[in-house]
Design a protein that fits this description.
This protein has two helices and eight strands. It is mainly beta and about 160 residues long. It starts with 6 loop residues before the first strand and ends with a strand.
Length: about 160
């Protein structure tokens, strides 16, 4: 922002889970992508007037071709100045049932069904290694992950 304060960005992060596997995207399609080369869940920015659930459903359909039928809001993660200019507030969802067929050519990158036991072997952001196991826990988490560039420097979490 012009006054030196970071902007505020609202987003969703979606993990489709089925038969012991999680749908991940290998971010390898957009030049200059802040996530380039990493594996992530799906998701993206909320549009004006959109609820987090509407964003989750839209982003899932756009990026994967799947329609969420059953989902859970697992938690909320704050990433202060994550991209060096914005504070990101991210609603984290798991989708347990869906309809549709997976896109053969996602705009974000290669879509991969990864066995849950192999998620930690992927090129993930350091914070993802911490919160991905939380997706299997009961309750709701509110977390803060502080990065300096690609390096995780601090994190906290509260469970409800």
């Amino acid at each position: 922002m012009a006054d030196g304060r970071p902007g505020l960005r609202l987003a969703t992060l979606i993990y489709v889970r089925s038969e012991g596997r999680t749908l991940m995207v290998h971010r390898n399609r957009k030049p200059g992508d802040w996530h380039e080369g990493r594996h992530n869940g799906l998701g993206g920015k909320l549009e004006p007037g959109e609820s987090p659930e509407q964003c989750m459903q839209r982003e899932l359909l756009e990026e994967s071709g799947l329609t969420a039928l059953t989902w859970r809001l697992n938690g909320m993660i704050t990433f202060p100045t994550f991209d060096r200019s914005n504070d990101w507030y991210v609603f984290v969802y798991t989708v347990s049932s869906y309809s549709g067929s997976l896109l053969s050519d996602s705009p974000e990158g290669d879509l991969l069904w990864v066995p849950d036991g192999e998620l930690q072997d992927l090129n993930l952001w350091p914070g993802d290694r911490i919160f991905l196991p939380w997706l299997d826990r009961d309750g709701f988490f509110s977390a803060r992950f502080m990065y300096d560039g690609p390096e995780l420097i601090d994190h906290t979490a509260v469970w409800y």
